[in-house]
Design goal:
Structural class of chain A: alpha/beta
Helix content of chain A: 25-40%
CATH topology of the largest domain in chain B: Helicase, Ruva Protein, domain 3
CATH class of the largest domain in chain B: Mainly Alpha
Oligomer: heterodimer
Radius of gyration of chain A: 24 Å
Distance between the termini of chain B: 87 Å
CATH architecture of the largest domain in chain A: 3-Layer(aba) Sandwich
Helix content of chain B: 55-70%
Structural class of chain B: mainly alpha
CATH superfamily of the largest domain in chain B: Cytochrome C biogenesis protein
Largest sheet of chain A: 7 strands, mixed
CATH architecture of the largest domain in chain B: Orthogonal Bundle
CATH class of the largest domain in chain A: Alpha Beta
Number of domains of chain B: 2
CATH superfamily of the largest domain in chain A: Glutaredoxin
Order of helices and strands of chain A: HEEEHEHEHEEH
Number of strands of chain A: 7
CATH topology of the largest domain in chain A: Glutaredoxin
Chain lengths: ~180, ~140
């Protein structure tokens, strides 16, 4: 009576290993070619951590509520960082288009930073000094340059490790709203 | 006499090695427990920059900074769980070399054992069915 049903079940069972194999192959294949250095930021979807940092321009202590109400970028940079110098031109371009960029001078010397901004131009609405790198650690930074997008609600929506260029910006700008 | 000299050379060689390994930096701890905690924590935490090294092994700037933070927190009497939570809040679960066994990680940790269990149950079922069938055949 159930012989026919049983043999059908058996046939399906024979395909089970193949199905498992196909599933695993699919999972592994989808992971191929991904950037192995990519690390998701723990801050995405969370509000910007509070801070009190000294401004390079005014020497006054600033914190979170002193930053723009609209969305802005937070860019970690330093004069010791060669990649930052490559990035700088593109940041100047973004600034000229009216993008609010908050610069964090990360583990740097103030005099060198002032000289750098004098020579290369200043794309930042404000530059805050993070000499010890404590704010960097609060933001989960691993080096420079690193750029975060903070939207109008003050929530961190995107993080990019490395140089911001045209291609990265196209991806990034959607998160600013 | 020769063997004694040999022994002393061997001992000297051994000790000089251990001295050079400890020469990097001397950290002062309030207690030996704190010292053990510090070393456990920095070997348990992963360097976010150089992803296949822990904080203890890495000399990346960020690893040095994070080691200092761990040292400060240990000395301030922060608990291990709080220190790990501090790191996870900033760098994600990625920084833990032995991630928590929750959520997706549950499958990673226990998945193989679950599959093994399912296989074992299947194996037993097949064996029992075959035995039953054999019995029926010998009867009939």
């Amino acid at each position: 009576m159930s012989e026919g049903k049983n043999s059908k079940m058996k046939k399906v069972a024979l395909f089970l290993p193949f199905l498992v194999f196909a599933l695993l192959a699919g999972v592994f294949f989808s992971q191929l070619g991904k950037d192995t250095q990519y690390m998701p930021s723990a801050l995405i979807g969370k509000t910007l951590p509070d801070f009190s940092l000294v401004s390079l321009e005014t020497n006054e202590v600033m914190n979170k509520k002193d930053l723009g109400e609209q969305g802005f970028l937070i860019n970690f940079w330093g004069t010791w960082c060669p990649a930052c110098s490559f990035e700088h031109d593109y940041l100047m371009k973004l600034a000229s288009e009216g993008i609010d960029i908050v610069g964090i001078d990360y583990k740097d010397e103030t005099t060198a930073a002032i000289k750098w901004l004098d020579e290369k131009g200043d794309p930042y609405s404000v530059v805050l000094l993070d000499e010890l790198g404590n704010f960097g650690i609060d933001m989960g930074v691993t080096g420079a340059p690193e750029t975060f997008v903070v939207n109008a609600e003050g929530i961190v929506t995107y993080r990019h490790q490395g140089i911001v260029n045209e291609q990265v910006w196209q991806e990034m700008k959607g998160y600013l709203k | 006499m020769i063997s004694l000299r040999f022994l002393s050379i061997v001992l000297l060689a051994l000790f000089s090695f251990s001295v050079s390994a400890e020469a990097e930096k001397v950290l002062n701890f309030k207690s030996e427990v704190d010292q053990v905690r510090y070393h456990d924590l920095i070997s348990e935490l992963r360097c976010p920059k150089c992803q296949n090294q822990n904080l203890a092994d890495s000399n990346a700037q960020i690893a040095i900074d994070l080691r200092t933070h761990v040292y400060d927190m240990v000395n301030d009497g922060t608990s291990d769980t709080e220190i790990l939570a501090y790191m996870v809040a900033r760098y994600g679960e990625f920084v833990l070399y032995s991630p928590q066994k929750k959520g997706v990680n549950f499958i990673l940790w226990y998945g193989p054992f679950i599959i093994l269990g399912v296989g074992l149950i299947g194996f037993i079922l097949v064996i029992r069915r075959n035995a039953k069938r054999r019995k029926q055949r010998t009867k009939g």
